[in-house]
């Protein structure tokens, strides 16, 4: 774990220092920035996995069931991994055996997304030539997924322990391929939480087949998830409630160029007071953890004044069980660190933004 954490951290610290040198050309600065961003994503994934495995160990894992179109979910993930496969010159195939294009189910979308993503990502990661084939079907309200690759395979003895935390193919492979050995144990815990099963068959230098079965409840006459704002409008003013000045500056700069007036509140109480006197605020980005009054409390008070005002939680809470505590008040949430593309997608759920 020390190796896995320090490797991306070394790149972040190193390239950040190099960027301070004024002699670098713009293309070099861009290269450093991309390396920092990629390494940051890797580090966040490692930290999130560690937190999730702690939650699993503490037996506090929870499922949050919502209705969603499973076909859209799998097609979206398929498109993402098709691009990754093309980079490695692999043949990626998605065989969807689901009755129609709008098949709504009731399940935990975040956990299902992580389950499918990790298994396909692993298949591509450990396959150097040939193919990765994903088949998907729903029979008797059970989702069946099979992922077959022509990769390096898994030793018979290791197959017995591969779902235990911190298990990797071997020391050499772990250094060659990276990884902290937590992914499969998290996947297995998620599948068991959803009352499903996972199994694998593998042969060295031939490939691996992973089979997943998860119960799902079909939603026939579905009115999809609640839509808060049927009529969208062009945004004029956003209030950012954030006590950390650097985080505020970052969000302000992310929104630069959208011709939006930005207001700033340093705590929940100030945000509430500003909403009492300024009815031109179109949307609030509310940090949850703030002094004097936290964002959750402030949001409840603001909603009493203006129930139709969209409020998006910007939170460092990444686990589903943590997010669930705040779903009663906020219209949506975005998890830190915040990316420009993700922020724009969140805003477009509520308002029209000119490109």
Tell me what the CATH architecture of the largest domain is: 2-Layer Sandwich
Order of helices and strands: HHEHEEHEEHHHEEEEHEHEHEHEH
Shape: globular
Relevant CATH superfamily of the largest domain: Histidine kinase-like ATPase, C-terminal domain
Kindly estimate the percentage of residues that lie in beta strands according to DSSP: 15-25%
Cα(first) to Cα(last) distance is 42 Å
Given as residue ranges, the uncertain stretches (5+ residues, pLDDT < 50) are: 170-175, 221-231
Number of helices: 12
Q: How many structural domains in the coordinates?
A: 3
The description of the largest β-sheet is:
5 strands, mixed
Read across the widest sheet, the strand sequence of neighbours is: 2-4-5-7-6
Rounded to an integer in angstroms, the radius of gyration calculated over CA atoms is: 23 Å
Secondary-structure class: alpha/beta
- The average pLDDT value, as a whole number, equals 84
What is the CATH C level class of the largest domain, in words?
Alpha Beta
* CATH structural fold name of the largest domain: Heat Shock Protein 90
How many extended strands?
13
What is the subunit arrangement here? Answer: single chain
Helix content: 40-55%
Structural features, described:
- This protein has helices at 2-19, 26-57, 70-87, 109-125, 156-159, 171-177, 183-193, 245-254, 268-277, 295-305, 320-324, 340-348; strands spanning 66-69, 91-97, 104-107, 131-139, 142-149, 197-203, 207-215, 217-218, 237-241, 261-265, 283-287, 311-315, 332-335.
- By secondary structure, the chain is of the alpha/beta class.
- The chain folds into 3 domains: 2-57, Orthogonal Bundle (Helix Hairpins); 66-218, Histidine kinase-like ATPase, C-terminal domain (Heat Shock Protein 90, 2-Layer Sandwich), CATH 3.30.565.10; 237-348, Response regulator (Rossmann fold).
- The strands form 3 sheets. The chain has a 5-stranded mixed beta sheet, with helices on one face. A 5-stranded parallel beta sheet has the order 10-9-11-12-13, sandwiched between helices.
- The longest helix is centred in the first third of the chain and has 32 residues, at 26-57.
- The chain is globular and about 65 Å long.
- The protein starts with a helix and ends in a 7-residue tail after the last helix.
- Residues 170-175 and 221-231 have low confidence and may be disordered.
């Amino acid at each position: 774990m020390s190796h896995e954490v320090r490797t991306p951290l070394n790149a972040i610290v190193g390239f950040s220092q190099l960027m301070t040198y004024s002699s670098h050309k713009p293309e070099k600065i861009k290269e450093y920035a991309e390396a920092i961003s990629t390494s940051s994503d890797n580090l966040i994934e490692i930290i999130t996995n560690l937190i999730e495995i702690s939650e699993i160990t503490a037996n506090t894992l929870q499922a949050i069931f919502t209705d969603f179109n499973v076909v859209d979910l799998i097609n979206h993930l398929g498109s993402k991994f098709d691009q990754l496969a093309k980079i490695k010159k692999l043949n990626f195939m998605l065989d969807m055996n689901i009755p129609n294009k709008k098949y709504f189910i009731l399940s935990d979308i975040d956990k299902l997304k992580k389950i499918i993503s990790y298994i396909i990502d692993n298949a591509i990661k450990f396959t150097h030539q040939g193919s990765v084939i994903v088949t998907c079907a729903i029979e008797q309200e059970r989702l069946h997924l099979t992922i077959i690759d022509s990769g390096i395979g898994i030793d018979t003895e290791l197959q017995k322990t591969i779902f235990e935390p911190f298990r990797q193919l071997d020391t050499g492979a772990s250094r060659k391929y990276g990884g902290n050995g937590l992914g499969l144990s998290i996947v297995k815990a998620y599948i068991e939480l959803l009352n499903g099963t996972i199994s694998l068959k593998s042969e060295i230098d031939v490939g691996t087949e992973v089979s997943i079965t998860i119960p799902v409840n079909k939603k026939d006459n579905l009115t999809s998830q609640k839509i808060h704002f049927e009529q969208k409008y062009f945004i004029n003013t956003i209030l950012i409630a954030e006590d950390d000045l650097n985080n505020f500056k970052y969000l302000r700069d992310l929104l630069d160029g959208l011709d939006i007036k930005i207001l700033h509140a340093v705590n929940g109480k100030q945000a509430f007071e500003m909403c009492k006197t300024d009815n031109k605020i179109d949307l609030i980005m509310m940090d949850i953890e703030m002094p004097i009054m936290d964002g959750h409390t402030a949001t409840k008070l603001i909603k009493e004044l203006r129930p139709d005002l969209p409020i998006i939680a910007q939170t460092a809470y990444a686990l589903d069980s943590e997010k669930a505590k705040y779903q009663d008040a906020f219209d949506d949430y975005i998890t830190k660190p915040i990316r420009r593309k993700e922020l724009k997608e969140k805003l477009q759920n509520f308002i029209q933004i000119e490109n």
